[in-house]
């Protein structure tokens, strides 16, 4: 294309690439007689394809499995970010499990009836009710909360539901 069009800018416009990329490709062609990428470029792999599939399978079988447990089961010295990357490639994200199913119209109706029945209460009646506003403070990096691996849209899957809701 360079010999046909003449300028790097015109070739870059035709192939929808930057001028720099076209220039580098032309230099490599002139130097080596090929434009193929060099073999071995990129980071070296620490896991095999089979180990990658095993990492994903463990998260699918037990959504509450931790990265350290997966690393111990695979038996390869890898960092937790590698495990997270493999799970993200399989479209699995680490999420907090929900505590309860959302309110149904029946639940909303019952709550409204409860409020309407107590709409005429005075201050002494309301003093018998306990309200709580707990906040959670975490000083370290680990909050000791259970997390689950799931794909988008799998929020109400039965394996991630608390035992009392299933």
Automatic annotation (TrEMBL):
Provide any one GO MF term from the record: DNA binding
InterPro entries given in the database record: RNaseH_sf, Transposase_Tc1-like
Q: Which domain of life, per UniProt?
A: Eukaryota
Could you mention a single GO BP entry for this protein? DNA transposition
Outline the extent of the Transposase Tc1-like domain.
52-117
Could you identify this protein by its name?
Transposable element Tc1 transposase
**What is the organism of origin for this protein?**
Trichonephila clavipes
């Amino acid at each position: 294309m360079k010999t046909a069009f003449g300028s790097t800018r015109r070739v870059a416009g035709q192939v929808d690439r930057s001028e720099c990329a076209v220039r580098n490709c032309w230099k490599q062609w002139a130097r080596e007689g090929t434009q193929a990428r060099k073999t071995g470029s990129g980071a070296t792999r620490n896991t095999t394809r089979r180990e990658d599939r095993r990492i994903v399978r463990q998260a699918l079988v037990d959504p509450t499995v931790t990265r350290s447990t997966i690393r111990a089961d695979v038996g390869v010295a890898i960092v937790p970010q590698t495990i997270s990357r493999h799970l993200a490639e399989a479209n699995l994200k680490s999420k907090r499990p929900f505590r309860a199913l959302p309110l149904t119209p029946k639940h909303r109706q019952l709550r409204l009836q409860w409020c309407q029945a107590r709409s005429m209460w005075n201050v002494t009646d309301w003093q018998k009710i306990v309200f709580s506003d707990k906040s959670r403070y975490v000083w370290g990096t680990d909050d000791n909360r259970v997390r689950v691996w799931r794909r988008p849209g799998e929020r109400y899957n039965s394996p991630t539901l608390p035992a009392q809701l299933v």
